[in-house]
UniProtKB/TrEMBL annotation:
Gene3D superfamilies assigned: 3.40.630.30, SCP2 sterol-binding domain
Annotated source species: Streptomyces asoensis
Subunit-structure text: Homohexamer; trimer of dimers.
Keywords: Acyltransferase, Transferase
Lineage start: Bacteria, Bacillati, Actinomycetota, Actinomycetes, Kitasatosporales
Family: Belongs to the acetyltransferase Eis family.
Signal peptide region: none
Ranges where the N-acetyltransferase domain occurs: 10-163
Superkingdom classification of source: Bacteria
Active-site feature positions: Y131, F421
SUPFAM superfamilies, alphabetized: Acyl-CoA N-acyltransferases (Nat), SCP-like
Protein name: UPF0256 protein
NCBIfam families recorded: PRK01346.1-4
Residues at which acetyl-CoA binds: V90, T91, V92, R98, R99, G100, L101, L102, T103
Length: 421
């Protein structure tokens, strides 16, 4: 008789230290990477994941689903950081897909994050259609440009900043020493930026091997102002490519570039676009309103290679999320927030002024009805209420309410999350 065995219930739970190798093989399998986990990478992951909440699903002792979350800080509009539940390493083995494993892991993690008091959860989505069902909305956009250096029109004889500032090469040790302070300055100013812990700097300077192939040292440069203050930094790698006619066709690919003053930003891009042999600069993950193209005498030399949703946010606490950000004007808006998961929904009165805001549950009539995922999309300022009304995603309960809400939520720049996690 041809009878199928009754499936055993899957064991969904936190992963023990001894199971980390099996868990990491499962992550690699889910991400279509060679499953082998080199000993050094495993040891380094153990260090980097020490504070993480690592969980998985097991079938007959084998790891078939993975999930990791960790404490993160996300900068809201205006510069205040909110506690976030950063989510990463989400995989379900192709042999166990579409049985609700991700849904179980996500529900457990979001409930725990809410319980801990996190204001939002965050992730970078592999595919657009996975996470909306769990209340996440796309909250920042990433743009990458490719710069055709000979067409850009920057002075090729440039020999460094003319404002008294200077650019110097740095080694990994210097980047680990100087980088964290620079990033702290960036994240006090820019909505969407997340914190970088010591493991982030260790992994980007060869101290920890967490992902991908073995370490290849990039170039690091630091910009200092005339009075010696570090205001910018970049990491980039280059290839070796020459045409048959012996013309250099090399590319400089930026891993990350941080600048906290206009002078630093101008100088670092000019530097990258005037390195001998470099014909193309790939900018890495920038904000869609990055000034870069306009730094070039011919902005058309910068063509967009990628533009896509980047950081996804899930609001867990509407009151704290709305009170954490700043507002462009004074006004009141009553929001009916719909949350199918029952974590954050309700009707809230936002009373905003440029000097501060309060938000509280209310029984007043709603001005706008929206899903918790759309609230996340609006929260960092990368979208407008008016556009979401046109898309049929936000319902205007009172004529003019969308325009009034946009006047409050409007921001002068778009949010930017420079990091993948
Ligand atoms: C933050 C990050 O780490 S992003 C990385 C995400 N991981 C990947 O993309 C790796 C490859 N994919 C996978 O590992 C898995 O397919 C996952 C993790 C995306 C989904 O896991 P599953 O356990 O199959 O999801 P689950 O069964 O809980 O699905 C729940 C619902 O989401 C839907 N869904 C799941 N994955 C997708 C997808 N990629 N696209 C569209 N819908 C999806 C399912 O169809 C299901 O819908 P239904 O309830 O209407 O039937």
């Amino acid at each position: 008789m041809n009878r199928r065995a009754t499936p055993q219930p899957l064991d969904v739970r936190p992963v023990t230290d001894a199971e980390l190798a099996d868990w990491t093989r499962a992550v690699n399998t889910g991400f279509l990477r060679p499953p082998t986990v080199p000993d050094r990478m495993l040891a380094d992951r153990r260090v980097a994941f020490a504070g993480s909440r690592v969980s998985g699903a097991f079938d007959g002792g084998r790891c078939v689903a993975t999930f990791r979350s960790f404490d993160q800080e996300l900068t809201a509009v205006g510069g205040a950081a909110v506690p976030a539940d950063g989510i990463s390493n989400v995989t379900v083995a192709p042999t166990h897909r579409r049985r609700g494993l991700l849904t179980r892991l996500m529900a457990d993690d979001l409930a725990a994050a809410k319980e801990r008091g996190d204001v939002v959860a965050t992730l970078i989505a592999a595919e657009y259609r996975i996470y909306g069902r769990y209340g996440f909305g796309p909250a920042t956009t990433m743009t990458e440009w490719s710069i055709d250096v000979p067409r850009a029109g920057l002075d090729p004889r440039w020999a460094g900043p003319l404002d008294g500032g200077r650019i110097d090469f740095a080694d990994g040790e210097e980047i680990r020493r100087l980088g964290p302070q620079l990033h702290e300055r960036l994240r006090r100013e820019r909505a969407g930026v997340i914190d970088r812990n010591e493991h982030w700097w260790a992994a980007r300077t060869g101290r920890l091997w967490l992902y991908g192939d073995a370490w290849v040292e990039p170039f690091f440069v630091v910009y200092r102002s005339a009075d010696g203050v570090v205001e910018g930094m970049a990491s980039y790698r280059t290839d070796e490519k020459w045409s048959d006619a012996k013309q250099p066709l090399n590319t400089a690919a930026v891993n990350w570039l941080t600048a906290v003053t206009p002078a630093a930003e101008r100088a670092l891009w000019h530097y990258l676009c005037s390195i001998d042999w470099i014909a193309t600069v790939r900018t890495g993950w920038r904000a869609p309103d990055d000034l870069l193209p306009l730094h070039l005498p011919d902005p058309r030399a910068a063509s967009i290679t990628t533009q896509a949703d980047w950081l996804w946010v899930r609001v867990l606490d509407v009151v704290r999320a709305l009170e954490a950000r700043t507002y462009a004007a004074s006004g009141v808006s009553v929001l009916e927030v719909v949350d199918r998961a029952g974590l954050a929904g309700g009707r809230f009165l936002l009373d905003a002024t440029p000097d501060g805001a309060s938000c509280a549950p209310t029984t007043r009539d709603a001005d706008l009805t929206l899903d918790v995922a759309d609230l996340a999309t609006l929260w960092l300022g990368d979208e407008t209420v008016g556009r979401l009304v046109s898309l049929g995603r936000v319902r205007e309960e009172r004529a003019g309410a969308a325009r009034e809400a946009d006047a409050l939520l409007r921001t002068s720049g778009r949010p930017w999350c420079p990091d993948m996690f």
